Amino acid sequence: MPEKQPDSELEKEQEAGVEPDEARAESRLLNIGVSPHIRDSSTTAGIMGWVIVALLPITAYGIYMGGVSAAIVVAMSILGAVATEAVIQRLRHEPVTVNDLSAVLTGLLLGLTLPPELPFWMPLLGGIVAIALGKQVFGGLGHNIFNPALVGRAVLFVSYSKYMTTSYLFSPKAPVFASQSIKSINAITTATPLAAQGLVRKDELTVAASRYYGPLLVGNPWGCIGEVSAVLILVGLAILLYKGLVDWRIPVCYVGTVVVLSWILGMDPLFAALAGGLLFGACFMATDYVTNPMTAWGKVIFAVGCGIVTTVLRFYSNLPEGVMFAILLMNGFTPLIDRYVKPVPYGVRAMRRAQAAAEAEQAGEAA
Amino acid sequence: MGEDEEPESISDERHFEEPGLSIRRTRTFKGGVHPGRNKAETSSKAVLRAPLPPVLSVPLTQHIGAPNEAVVTPGEHVELGQVIGDSGAFIAAPVHAPAAGTVEAVADVPDFRGKSALCVVIAVDSEQPGREASPRERPGGLTAERVRVVAREAGLVGMGGAAFPTHVKLTPPADKAIDTVIVNGCECEPYLTCDHRLMLERAPELVGGLRLFMRAVDARRGIIGIEADKMDAVESVRAAASSCAEVHAAALDVKFPQGSEKQLIHVLTGRDVPPGKLPSEVGCLVQNAGTAVALYEAAATGKPLYERVVTITGPLVARPGNYLARLGSPLGFLLGVAGGLAAEPARVIAGGPMTGWAQGSAQSPLVKGMSGIIALPLLPEYEREERACVRCGKCVDACPMFLLPNFIVDAVQEEEWPKAQMWGALDCFECGCCSYTCPAFIPHVRYVRSAKAALARTRE
């Protein structure tokens, strides 16, 4: 046993007879923490911020096309979302985390999926519902099953379907729109040109759908605020992909599935891809981290499922568009997909191969 | 060197014409992260000898396995290299006196894991006689059994951090044939350059050590895996190995954790070690570069492992560099050797910043497996708070074991231990890639450790 045991740090230091310089280092009780001791610079707020940046061109163009009313819709839904997040967190005595920008993003996403000419209280209500019912009832960020923005939109859609499907963007500022000789459809009150299908002869959409490409690409006049330009949505997607924030599999598999199925069912495939809320939904809604599966193959299943449901709803339901309900439905399947589609841990494949080889050998010997 | 350039050694397959023995062309593994390297401060400086501290506290057990017992008593005088701690168990490595001096006590001293370790406290003599080299057989003539005995007598353990006794690794199960010995010169942790310097300065010894490993397990080839940011080390090792056709140096992608045993085996041989098994299962043996040099020294001159090269660095260190220091030197003393600290450190880390241990006491002594002492200032990340997981999946992408770190965290938060095991808590080797990349600043490694501890309790 030890003869003498230094009973204080100081005594140990004196025993060690360290130099003043070292004593300075030794006298402190140093801070500890679990490894790793370095982190990269990514933050939740940073990710949310970049998604918002990716949405800015779309937002700006949507407001340019939709005017003041569009700006009010977007602002109100953001306000509703952020205020609700703060109030609920305060009520639950939790730290208020609106500075992580996730509520801002939810509000913005919701606003961009609304028609530009809603009464101001409607997007406000949508924002409140999105956060309260879509997110906080599940326990807040990261725990929600359904995309909060789409929950807000779904509630508005079901409650005020007249407003949600009849207010459409018709602005003299849309030059492409004016130049296209599709005035016959101008009068149709619908959120998207897809809804025109029932009213236009089918062959017109299959044969002559190409004349909608222009407006859909650069200024889709019937869409919601965020759906006015497919080009800008793709620009946003490019930003997200460049920053490594979304998995390419979701937009590609989602849109791809819709294109292929629509083509089989006789619709112009490019029209199917560009029209309605598909692109916006596939790029910004289905890619929501919280509500899609964790693994690459899980994401593929999720996206293909979204594509199938969207096409089915478009063709066989009386809804004008299927994207919202398709994504919400597949959100519900996400926990199930995550349960069954897991990555195979390192070495497990090798183990299975070895076992299979051993069994085959045994079988061979037996034979 | 360009990213896509094929390293010569890997494409050079002429020596391995037996099926299943060619070196794969893969240069990296799936997953991992790219932390800033921070190696330039120390990588170009030759290794310096650190002075002896007045008092050494030598932990009796510096390996993973059965604990050693002190074989000296307080008041006894010990010579340099004399055995001071040993165990009769097979999985154990003896500890030797790092300097001549008088044993003051066998006492508990704070160790690098934040606990305390039984140490032999030695008051170092002011006059240190040089160690007489006691050349044994020529290293080239050693039998396999002799190599194992030399490794055990010299107290060799894995010097990359794991500290597993080397002679145990050199004794694979009888039914497992080892065809490949890999020397790990990746040094994928940021800041650390001690293996880099060893490969530059001691390449012949390193290759000699590798050949001894190969002799011990009767392996047909030896590969030295080195990350491609150290091409000078690749050249140096290739030059040293030019006369032996069965030894190759392979340049690998710069990515953490390239130097992890399983990832390294995968990259170099295309084989995957099954969960819960050892590399011998797939015919491989992996040893750290420092261990290879130490084995050669032990074989050539009888020198036991009583000192090691340690990287002392960090933004706060006045004279960052690699120092050949005696085991048992207090970290505070070694920081003083490196010029002291310019300011109060936020953390002092033993080992690398990704997997090392933050030190609670500057008294904790240098041990065989400690490759670095890094003093870090207050980094922005130390002030961040854990947030809710947004399921972004960065941890899943980064996990080199293909686990779902965030699901393990969920299970631990719910204290659902079997679920934590189902998501792979026990397969995790705590590389820290998940936590490194997590935007919500979740300390996955801490959760995994509590899962492992809880699962160990339930097994008992």
Notes on the protein architecture:
- The complex is a heterodimer of chains A (367) and B (460).
- Chain A is mainly α and 367 residues long.
- Chain A has one domain (44-340): Orthogonal Bundle (Ammonium transporter fold), CATH 1.10.3430.
- Helices cover 62% and strands 0% of the residues of chain A.
- Chain A is globular, with a radius of gyration of 27 Å.
- Chain B contains 15 helices and 17 strands.
- In chain B, the strands form 4 sheets. Chain B has a 6-stranded mixed sheet with strand order 1-14-13-17-15-16, with helices on both faces. In chain B, strands 2-8-7-4 form a 4-stranded antiparallel sheet, with no helix packed on it. A 4-stranded parallel sheet of chain B has the order 11-10-9-12, with helices on both faces.
- Chain B is of the alpha/beta class and 460 residues long.
- Chain B is globular, with a radius of gyration of 22 Å.
- The longest helix of chain B has 16 residues, at 444-459.
- The relative contact order of chain B is 0.15.
- Chain B has 2 domains: 1-51 and 138-378, 3-Layer(aba) Sandwich (Rossmann fold); 386-459, no CATH class.
- In chain B, a hairpin with an 8-residue loop joins strand 5 and strand 6 (95-96).
- The model of chain B is unreliable at 1-25 (pLDDT under 50).
- In chain B, helix 3 (144-153) crosses helix 6, helix 6 crosses helix 7 and helix 12 (405-413) packs across helix 15.
- At the A-B interface, helix 1, helix 2, helix 3 and helix 19 of A face strand 7, helix 10, strand 15, strand 16 and helix 14 of B.
